[in-house]
Amino acid sequence: MVKPLRSIAIFGAVGALVAAVALPAYASSKPIDEAATTVQQLAAVDAQSLVVASEATAAPIEHGSFSATTPEEIAKKKAEEEAAARAAAAAAAAAAAAKNSTTSTTSTTYTGNYALTAPGSGEVRYPLPIGSYNVSRTLGNGHNGIDMVAPAMTPIYAATAGVVRVSSEDYFGYGVGVVIDGVVGGAAVGTTYGHMTYGTRQVQAGQTVSAGQLIGFVGSTGRSTANHLHFEVKVNGTLLEPGGWLSANAG
Description:
Elements: H1 2-58, E1 61-63, E2 66-68, H2 71-103, E3 134-137, E4 146-149, E5 155-157, E6 162-168, E7 176-184, E8 187-196, E9 208-209, E10 214-217, E11 228-235, E12 238-240, H3 242-249
Antiparallel strand pairs: 1-2, 3-4, 4-11, 5-10, 6-7, 6-9, 7-8, 8-11, 11-12
């Protein structure tokens, strides 16, 4: 009886020893595998995140009407566009200036059905056809002549014979203006005609004209708010009231 019990005890001890050795080894091996798997997964996730970040960084940044990938390139593109805009504006201004310089020294022949000379035979003529205008303002209070209100494109005639000193599309506040220097009765007479219609001057600076010759057409250029002729008269350098001067001398 003692011998079987001893055998059982021996087998039990061996089994306990096997369990004590095998079970801890099995238990410790599983967390290691799980830990290894977790490291591999994290590495894969990190690698995927890195790719996504790299792709996002390489995408161009849109900024207004240009694309660039760095702040320096954005600034460069913007500077280039601003320079191009300034160049275009300068070219437009130069073209406008060239056009103005051309029109200021030329005139357009436009006679329509109007007479080329004013009626009368005297040394002094009315600058507008009689009965075609009304006087709205006279000499005085800073105004150097009379305003003869008439429809646009009413013909304007030289009040005296003489030499054209000024013929311009932009003669200060007069707009399209003409100035003629002549001699009447031994006195120097200067007459000014302002606010003509653009492109209708019939004379040029330096040209000799006769009394009553067509020189342009009524308009509203320069400092003007309505169609009219601004007419000035200077005799020996002194401003005279043009309406009275015309009444006394024209014929």
